[in-house]
Amino acid sequence: MLSTAQKEQFIQQGYVVLDELFSLQSMHSLKQAAGKIVDDFDAESTRAVFSTQDQSKSRDDYFLSSGDKVRCFFEEDAFNAEGQLKQEKALSINKIGHALHVLEPVFKSFSHSDTISQLALDLGLQKPQIHQSMYIFKQPKIGGVIRWHQDASYFYSDPITVLTFWFAVEDATIQNGCLQVQADPETYPLIEQFKRYENDDTDLIKLNNKPWPKDDDAKPLEVKAGTLVVFNGLLPHFSAPNLSDKSRHAFTLHMTCATSKYAKENWLQAKPSPLY
Ligand code: FE2
Q1: Fewest Cβ atoms nearer than 10 Å: which of 3, 26, 116, 260?
Q2: Are 204 and 196 in contact (CB under 8 A)?
Q3: b/e for 30-48, b at 16 or more Cβ within 10 A?
Q4: What pLDDT score does 52 carry?
Q5: Which pTM value belongs to this model?
Q6: Looking at the domain assignment, is residue 164 inside a domain?
């Protein structure tokens, strides 16, 4: 499926970009399925989660118990000071997570397709398994920043095997907050680890003092809809806020190799879904 050059690029740079690998039609079907979930979502049901009165604990519960569910999460800037949505519901959702690949048929068949399974094998996962799926909206004007991070901080395993599959459902540009990755090929150590304890407290632990790359040194991945970017768990990446009037929808999958030991401190402990 992948050329030798593509595999080498992945090994050396930590990511590979597969331009317009998927049809616009298949991206449109993901977008439609996500739109239906938002339509069916009762915005009042979780209003409290993001109200100014809310304690972070209940916000955490909504998040921490979502590993085997399909839940909508609001943009932080979605509400005004009175707790009312500033714009229609469909333009207020930050993301849907985290078990679309299990519970939603359109996402399930897409995520378990032969193409994706073969790519996971080609990129080194002997026994690929999906832990998480997210549909990210990056809404116009209010789509928030995602700071520098590494995905292995959230999907730690021994050895580290997590791969992120990032599908551009819509065109991604600098203006609408495209993915930006570490530009030089230096392999970073793991800088942070997000841990969930038995009492459901969480902590982001700093593992070393290595600084993140500078924003100006990042490589923006401006890609067309249908493009797949795959990157490894140690690749630092971020995305700037979307200040444009265009959304930047993306779908993501996080996979590990079943032969690696998935950490019991990872926040997401839902049963992984094997690709073979
Ligand atoms: Fe990430």
Answers
A1: 3
A2: no
A3: bbebbeebbeebebeebee
A4: 38
A5: 0.95
A6: yes
What's the 115 CA to ligand 1 centre distance in angstroms? 22
Of 218, 240, 221, which Cα lies nearest the Cα of 229? 221
Domain span including residue 187: 4-267
First-to-last CA distance in the chain? 17
Distance from residue 27's CA to the centre of ligand 1 (Å): 20
CA 24 from chain center: how many Å? 20
Q: Quick check: is 275 in a domain?
A: no
The token pair that represents 165 in the structure block: 């599959």
Ligand 1: centre distance to CA 151 (Å): 5
Q: Which amino acid is at 61?
A: D
In this structure, is residue 87 part of a structural domain? yes
Whose tokens are 């730690």? That residue is: 156
What confidence score (pLDDT) does residue 96 get? 95
Q: How many domains does the chain have?
A: 1
Which tens digit of pLDDT belongs to each residue from 142-161? 888 899 999 999 999 999 99
In a domain, 273, yes or no: no
| CATH number of the domain that residue 222 is part of | 2.60.120.620
